[in-house]
Design brief:
The protein starts with a helix and ends with a strand. The strands form four sheets. The chain has a nine-stranded mixed β-sheet. A seven-stranded mixed β-sheet has the order 14-15-16-17-19-18-20, with helices on one face. Strands 3, 4, 5, 7 and 8 form a five-stranded antiparallel β-sheet that branches. The chain is α+β, with helices and mostly antiparallel strands and about 500 residues long. It is globular, with a radius of gyration of 22 Å. Helix 3 (about 240-250) runs parallel beside helix 6 (about 290-300). It has eight helices and 23 strands. It is about 20% helix and about 25% strand. About 45% of the residues are buried. It has helices at about 5-35, 205-215, 240-250, 250-260, 270, 290-300, 345-355, 390-400, and strands at about 45-50, 55-60, 110-115, 125, 130, 140-145, 150-160, 165-175, 185-190, 220, 260-265, 280-285, 285, 310, 315-320, 360-365, 405-410, 415-420, 425-430, 450-455, 460-470, 470-480, 485-495. It has a domain at about 175-225 and about 305-495: Purple Acid Phosphatase, chain A, domain 2 (4-Layer Sandwich), CATH 3.60.21.70.
Amino acid sequence: MSSHEINRRKFILGSSAIMAGAVFAPRLLAQTAGAASSGPGQAMGLRIGEVSESTALVWTRLTSAAERNGQGLVIPKRGKDEQKRGKGESKVKVPVDELEGACPGAPGRVRVRYGLREDLSDAQVTEVMVAAEANDFICEFKLTGLQAGATYHCVSEVMTPAGLVVAGTVRGRFRTAPTAGMTDAVRFCVMTCQGYADRGHPDGHAIYPSMAAFAPHFTCLTGDLVYYDSGDPDAVNERLARYHWERMFSLPRLKAFNSNHSTYWLKDDHDVLSNDSGPGAAMGELTFAQGQRIFRQQAPMHDDGPAYRTVRWGRDLQVWFVEGRDHRSKNKSPDGPTKTIWGAEQKAWFKRTVQESDATWKVLVSPTPLVGPDRKNKHDNHANPNFAHEGDELRGWLREHVPENFFVVCGDRHWQYHSVHPVSGVREFGVGPASDEHASGSPGYDAAYHKFHRVDGGFLAVTLERPEAGRSRILVELRDVSGSVVHAWDATRKA
């Protein structure tokens, strides 16, 4: 008998009593609350993305069951002494649908009702969409004509073939952005680097209820949301890549958070392929191009343009989200004027839109660091010598053209920090990983850069408010996974 078979047997025998209450009861409740007939489920909940003052995207995926596979084969965490794989075949030899956390897709029909009232008595209704295998049974609805600065409630409804009876529902909630003239208080948080094996709790990372307690108006996920190459089964084909998303985002804590908070999604290397990867790379049968396409399916984003974009949240805040994988040069290419992470078009767009903005505070959210410092064995970001030319260009441009109302928030680092570049003065906050178990790799405290340095998990929480007429205050807090503040920086300026 294989170790996987033993683990599966232990899991089934040891958890049968628990599963009866934790899985079967919710399924019964969902069916009872849904309607008269059975149908496809929505085991991955809702995802709400790209919220503006008048639009939002609502994502769902139809699945064969209402809940994830809670009785599947449990794959043990890869040991530190185990050789890294990720280049050929996965060692897991059972069908993917038999793995713990799998959410097999299912065809069906679905619509969304949405409105300002919690009981949806004022609801508008979208057209019915067909969930098909060609798009991994994913449906994405664009809601338009929304009221700015308002809280919306929504429900996704799976329809029977007759189109008369709702077979299953999932509720959600989100807030639209205020207009550029509105001075509403704004709260948002930023998170990165979540490993499935390092989640610390069967229901998901503790960071999610902690972020929910902060009550953000929106969230930024900066990438490394799944790790295709850092834990079995390595995503060496498209089905295994999709499985990584299924098992992560069907966790109860993640479902609850993503269904009730709007998110701007960014990708990094592990969400697309493998560590430090870029265009043209492959891992087994999975190509970088396939990884790009899967990310666009999984993350509710506008698919009719580049991944870099900017969003305005009221009079006082504008945020830029940059793309760090699609346009990059190879890491080991000689550094110089043509070597790039962002690409010429993205750099020109960033410089132009930053100069055009009259927001009181300007924030760049980047999957990778612009300031750092980083450890010596890394080669794929602007804090490394490998991309020093473009890094110096960007930091120099910011020093010359952007006053003290600008700062950077970056993901990718498995430690938290607050740095100020000693030459350019660019300020950067490193978010840290989603769990303490995932923290590591720091180059250590550097007095020339660091205002704060901590090797543990956590998230960034940002609050903007008007303490008095004509003044805007920003508060930036690094919080631990439980939500406690470990470092804070604030500033006030004329608005």
